[in-house]
Amino acid sequence: MTKELGNFSPEERAAQEERLRKVWETPKGIRYWTSVNNSEIGLWYGVTAFAFMLFAGLLGLLMRLQLAVPQNDFISAELFNQAFTLHGTVMMFLFAVPIFEAVAIFLLPSMLGARELPFPRLSAFGFWSFLIGGVFVCGSIFFNAAPNAGWFMYPPLATDDEYAGIGADIWLLGLSFIEVASIAAAVEIIVGIMKCRAPGMRVNLMPMFAWYLLIVAGMILFAFPPLIAGDILFEMERMFDWPFFDARRGGDPLLWQHLFWIFGHPEVYIIFLPAIALMAMIVPTFSQRPIVGYSWIVLAAVGTGFLSFGLWVHHMFATGLPQISLAFFSAASEAVAIPTGVQIFVFIATMLAGRVIFSVPMLFGAGGLIIFVIGGLTGVMVALVPFDWQAHDTYFVVAHLHYVLIGGMLFPVVAGIYYYFPFVTGKKLSDAWGRAAFWLMFAGFNTAFFPMHFSGLRGMPRRVFTYPEDIGWDWFNLISTIGAFVFAAGVATFVIDIFRPKQQPAERDLNPWNSGTLEWTNDPAETWGMRSVPIITSRYPLWDQPNLQADIEAGRFYLPDAKSGKRETLVTSVLDAKPIQCLRVGGVSYVTIIAAIALGGVFIALTFKLWITTIVFAIITFIAVIHWLWNGTAPIPEAPEIDVGLGETLPIYVSGPASVGWWAMFITMVGDGTAFASLIFGYFFYWTIHDDFTTIANGPGVLWPMAALVLYVIAWVLTLLARELNEKGPSGARLALIAAFAVSIAASLAGLAGPYLHGMDPTSHVYPAIVWIVAIWTVTHGMVGAIMQGYCLARSIAGRMTAEYDQDIRNVALYWHFMAFTAVVTFAVLGLFPLVNT
Amino acid sequence: MKSFIPREVETLWTLFTAPTVWALHFLVCYATVAVFCAKGLASEISFDTVRIGLGVVTALALAMIVLSAWLAWRQWGFGSDDPPHDEATRNARTLFQGFATLLLSGLSFAAVLYMAIPMIFIAGCPP
Predict the structure, then answer these.
(1) Residues within 8 A of B (CB atoms), A 586-625 only
(2) Cα(A785)–Cα(A788) distance, rounded to whole angstroms?
(3) Does any domain span residue B83?
(4) Beta-carbon neighbour count of residue A143 at 10 Å?
(5) Residue B37 falls within a domain, yes or no?
(6) Strand, helix or coil at A525?
(7) What is the share, in percent, of chain A residues with pLDDT greater than 70?
(8) Residue B1 has pLDDT above 60, yes or no
(9) What pLDDT, on a 0 to 100 scale, did the predictor assign at position A52?
(10) Does B11 touch chain A (CB under 8 A)?
(11) Which partner for A671 in A221, A289, A378, B11 could form a disulfide, CB atoms 3.0-4.6 Å apart?
């Protein structure tokens, strides 16, 4: 790609910068919070997640104080239960996952050479959802109402109202809300990495971080939805007494364990891979050479991503499943050590091949790897069924999981913060403070957690709030407590280092570590990200492309200007990153906050069973989302093409598979499909545990499910017809949309008619309950599909959707592909399976 | 032969072929055994039949992974060029994809074999 670069006089450049600054300006005062820029959202996200981590850390210290000596009465058993439940929940859901989303949102655009990720308002919405849900969940402990059944909420303990109280509802609804934010982030990250890279950044030149994040975001799509499905079943049981996990009425608590761990195990890797991704950026910088074995890292990332889905039952080795099933999961658990090992060896090889500078980030990185390897080795131990039976639910497991998570996640994240602090603020953190923090944390961590292996092997169960003297646990626990406080002192040192006032460096140095990757060309003082979007020809452009920094700053590359007064970034092709579109992204907006608050209101009101309030908030959410879509998405541009610099013009509006919106819909629906598959899994799970599953109670019959199936297929065909007709003119398309809308409504009524007319009582037994929930899931999707058809109709009438500018109908048609599939599976299973199963 | 072996395609998705085969193999093995044991089908079909059936599935999965590996090897130019494939050319990108796909095929092959081991040693359903 040899291109004539742009050449601008100083005056022209100043004028360009003026326009860019104005377009990307962050609002002042209270309106600052309406910002959607990735650098603000990423920062807020990160700071919030970090604050939650400190809170959960304090809960951990409370527990260590209580366990310091035998027969202690420092805190009550009830508070202890709430503390450990919240500690685990907050660390996993409010720190480990969100901090990676924060880092991704903050770093990815700069790393990929984009001005912004494709859906900045979605990121903002995700952040506000996370903040509201997180405060709600954490705040509950101050009202003695926190969840108290352990972070994985096993029924029947957690479904017991007397024991679990409202805490379980807070957990289920608060976290469901946050899971929505995670899926939003996954959509943003996948589309960003696939479509928004700098021109020339082919897939073989992508920064390692992007590879990892692409895999992790893909994992989120398959890991979180099963938990959402589980949450729905769980909440239906708690709220309306539908017996999904109640063995007396045909339910089974094990289904929850399956759904939870299908999420929970990949979750460990969802946490671990991004942290390792940070290491993959840090290690080459401080070895001053490219990473050794780039393709091997891709192997490791993709391989771990897949294999991690075959491990979930190793959390359930003690539940009495057939040995052969356990053995499958044991085998996969051993297999995952291969890609994980490759990952570690790649880092070691890179360090050996280069000249290592042992800076603070490297110290944290290397220390983390040591801890992680120890955790990995005990992981291989507990992956073996006979050993696991001995160690299950003891402090050995507590030690193992903390070694994995703190070594594999917390230490690399701290390394990343030391490394990227100058990128965020333009100033470095202190070397001396950093070293002190590291040694306190490293020594404290090992002192706290290593003895837990022994207390565990001596039989100390996890989650006990106290223990008797003289059974050999006293000293181990006291040492652990002392270690925990040393560790906390290290964390405190690190936090003080962050907040302590720092001097402005003598001269502006954008790349203080002499890194090779693109993000270090960004000036933290400017909000536009890339001054101009460069052409990339290397994995380490700052090392290999002479004059890159100066040319970017002189605006000699793409999009050096913002003449349109709109926020613009480049969209490029997936494999070779050829420029294909100039994408306009959303700017400052209140609507994201309003939508998040309203949706938060829905979840919170549901927790307290305030039905009217729930409905009111749901209506506000609906209006906010429609307002957001109507005014913010797929606007018809003033001209078909725009000058992007370097003598090229690109289209502003594209639709169908070329557009980012289509991809977002596709990705969202893949996640949605996974949740649906989890419900269907539930149906067949119940079938396997009952000999007479479909004959226990009335079924939905054949007629109505088949009617619903046929009607949904007709609605799908009509939607496709509308898409085709729309290319010729609006009138035919509008007629087809009206018909499709009517048929969708009819189909939805027919879908519910089966279980309703056959008098299926969902509280009587799990069979009617699961039939109802699958039908309700599908009908809800059908109603959303109908709203989409109505939306397209309104867009067409308002002149916002035309034959040429038809993103709306194309995305809705894509939704309906998934909808039709969901409906066919649902009604074939509900209507026809009972006939086969007689 | 030409009609049997797919042409070379330009897409990111081929990278995931072999791990997807692993995932499907995993699901089939797990689901078959779970249903067999939970439904108590031992009176109708012997466990050995299940093992033989799943052995055939394993052989099929391994064959598909080998095919994916061969296609990857071809995409990698049959090893004509060494990594790191970091030039800014379409050719280097293709070679990189081929090499990474080949590595993943190797990992998936090993992982499928791991899955097969329990079926050799465990001869029944009891917990």
Answers:
(1) none
(2) 5
(3) yes
(4) 10
(5) yes
(6) coil
(7) 100
(8) no
(9) 96
(10) yes
(11) A221
Q: How many structural domains comprise chain A?
A: 1
DSSP string covering A436-485: HHHHHHHHHHHHHHHHHHHHHHTTPBTT-S---TTSS-HHHHHHHHHHHH
User: Cβ contact (<8 Å) for B33 and A322?
Assistant: yes
Q: Closest chain A residue to B103 measured between Cα atoms?
A: A299
Residue A48 tokens read as 């919030």
Q: What is the pLDDT of residues A573-616, one digit of tens each?
A: 999 999 999 999 988 889 999 999 999 999 999 999 999 999 99
Kind and range of the H or E element at A572? strand A568-572
Give the integer Cα–Cα distance in Å for A372 and A365: 10
Residue A826 lies in a domain: yes
Of B99 and A509, the one with more pLDDT? B99
Task: Round the average pLDDT of chain A to a whole number and report it.
Answer: 93
CB A596 within 8 A of CB A134: no
* Length of chain A measured in residues: 838
Helical segments of A241-384, H only: 253-287, 294-307, 323-335, 337-353, 360-382
B3/chain A closest Cα distance in angstroms: 26
| Full residue range of the structural domain in which residue B97 is found | 14-121
Contact A687, A252 (CB under 8 A): no
DSSP-based three-state secondary structure for A643: strand
Of B37, B88, B115, the CB nearest to A332: B115
Please tell me if residue A682 touches chain B, with a CB cutoff of 8 Å. Answer: no
Kindly give the interhelix angle for A431-457 and A411-425, rounded to the nearest 10 degrees: 160
* Residues in chain B within 8 Å Cβ distance of A262: none
**Out of B84, B104, B122, closest to residue A299 by CB:** B104
Contact A335, B111 (CB under 8 A): yes
Range of A736's domain?
A: 674-836
**Cα distance between the two ends of chain B:** 48
Q: By the CB < 8 Å criterion, does B39 face chain A?
A: yes
Taking the C-alpha atoms of residue A560 and residue A570, their distance in angstroms, rounded to an integer, is 12
* Residue A615, number of CB atoms within 10 A of its CB: 12
Structure tokens at B120: 């050799």
CA distance A523 to A501: 21
In a domain, A808, yes or no: yes
Q: 3-class SS at A758?
A: coil
Give the span between the Cα atoms of A630 and A632, in whole angstroms.
6
Give residue-wise pLDDT tens across range A783-834.
999 999 999 999 999 999 999 999 999 999 999 999 999 999 999 999 999 9
Choose among A203, A323, A539: nearest Cβ to B97: A203
- Count of structural domains within chain B: 1
**Does B5 fall in a domain?**
no
Mean pLDDT of chain B: 89
The reply to whether B88 touches chain A by the CB within 8 Å rule is: yes
Q: Would you say residue B127 lies in a domain?
A: no
| pLDDT given for residue B3 in this prediction | 60
Please report, as a single letter, which amino acid is at residue A185: A
How far apart (Å, rounded) are the C-alpha atoms in residues A423 and A437?
21
CA–CA separation, B19 and B22 (whole Å): 5
Q: Given B92, B103, B118, which is nearest A331 (Cβ)?
A: B118
pLDDT at A508 over 80: no
| Residue A777 forms part of a structural domain | yes
Q: What is the CATH number of the domain that holds A749?
A: 1.20.120.80
Say if residue A156 is preceded by a cis peptide, omega within 30 of 0.
yes
**Of A248, A268, A269, A244, the residue nearest A257 (C-alpha):** A244
- In A169-203, which positions are buried (b, 16+ CB within 10 angstroms) versus exposed (e)? bbbbbbbbbbbbbbbbbbbbbbbbbbbbbbbbbbb
For residue B125, the distance in angstroms to the closest alpha carbon of chain A comes to: 5
Partners of A266 on chain B (C-beta within 8 Å) are: none
| Minimal-distance CA residue of chain B relative to A692 | B39
Secondary structure (3-state) at A649: strand
Give the integer Cα–Cα distance in Å for B100 and A510.
34
